[in-house]
Amino acid sequence: MSQASNNVSKFLMGFAVAAITTTTVYAQAAYPNRPVRLVVSQQAGGSSDTIARMWAESVGKSIGGTVVVENKPGAGGIIAAQYVLGQPADGYTLFFGGVSQMVFNRFTYKSLPYSPEKDFTGVGMLTTVPFILVTNPATGMKSLNELTQKAKQSPGKLNFASAGLGNSTHLAVELLAKALDISMTHIPFKGEPDGVMATIGGQTEVMAPVFGTALPHIKNNKLVPLAVIAPQRLNELPDVPTAAELGVKGFDNMGWSGIVARSGTPAGLVDKLHKATEEFHKNPQVQAKLKGMGVIPLPGPASLLMETTERDMKAWGPTLETLNLSGQ
Question: Taken in order 204, 208, 210, 216, is the CA torsion positive or negative?
Answer without folding.
Answer: positive
